[in-house]
Amino acid sequence: xxxxxxxxxxxxxxxxxxxxxxxxxxxxxxxxxxxxxxxxxxxxxxxxxxxxxxxxxxxxxxxxxxxxxxxxxxxxxxxxxxxxxxxxxxxxxxxxxxxxxxxxxxxxxxxxxxxxxxxxxxxxxxxxxxxxxxxxxxxxxxxxxxxxxxxxxxxxxxxxxxxxxxxxxxxxxxxxxxxxxxxxxxxxxxxxxxxxxxxxxxxxxxxxxxxxxxxxxxxxxxxxxxxxxxxxxxxxxxxxxxxxxxxxxxxxxxxxxxxxxxxxxxxxxxxxxxxxxxxxxxxxxxxxxxxxxxxxxxxxxxxxxxxxxxxxxxxxxxxxxxxxxxxxxxxxxxxxxxxxxxx
Length: 343
Ligand SMILES: [Zn+2]
Fold this sequence. Notes:
- The chain has helices at 2-16, 35-49, 53-58, 76-91, 99-110, 116-131, 136-139, 145-158, 317-322; strands at 181-182, 190-191, 197-198, 202-206, 211-213, 218-226, 230-237, 242-249, 264-265, 270-273, 292-299, 312-314, 330-332, 339-341.
- The chain is of the alpha+beta class.
- A hairpin with a 6-residue loop joins strand 13 and strand 14.
């Protein structure tokens, strides 16, 4: 009987959030997954977002609730406009509505299909209201479970990029200031080395040796050779919600010599050099494609999401474009040949 009651709820939530259909395949780590398992995980998220009494009864008491899937869709233009709106609100003394709350509001309005024209219009309308002291549009969502889901998701993605309190940009572009790079929106494209899988990051093409910058402060949790990523560095944010993956680093001299697992790094610090290593179980081998940085961001709410089918990787293309406005200036030490940030 309970199952019958739940069915329409599941169907409705799946339709409502069809934008969450996952592209959750592989790159950061060596693993595979299949589509039906991912569909199942979407059903689990959606049903976990439905906190009806019926559902609560069905859950085992020890089952933990956490977000199981995020599709991060705002364009860099919208991110820029929302971040500026956030700073403006803070200057007007409104400190509880920031970038994440505004994005959540827009995502509810556009069903997570961000559209520059409609979103800009909705943003202007909201700002006009808020600046005149009318908070109704946001306050009415206070107890809305989707609004809460979006707010929590956006905080998990953006807390190292946009300061949640002040609205200022605190994240750095992964390529140092003054170095050329190019790339396109390539998240989810298929890759065939090893096994068929999806591309869970963004490739930034540039010159070999270009200094790579840590987007956020954190701790180095992975450093060394991986058969897919080649020489790579993995950094976990202080709040542990984000894992940043920088791969295909330079042959022979992939990162500053002193770096090691466990080191704390600062946002803006040089943590590697662009190269073209990887796609080989043998260490220090260049792959045949063009030199580029593979940059990935994984969101982790629960230990079970660190590895395997529960991994959430974000499309970072728009975040990188947004952070083009904040690049770290670096200088080369002619003796050690290492670059470091100029503050
Ligand atoms: Zn890549």
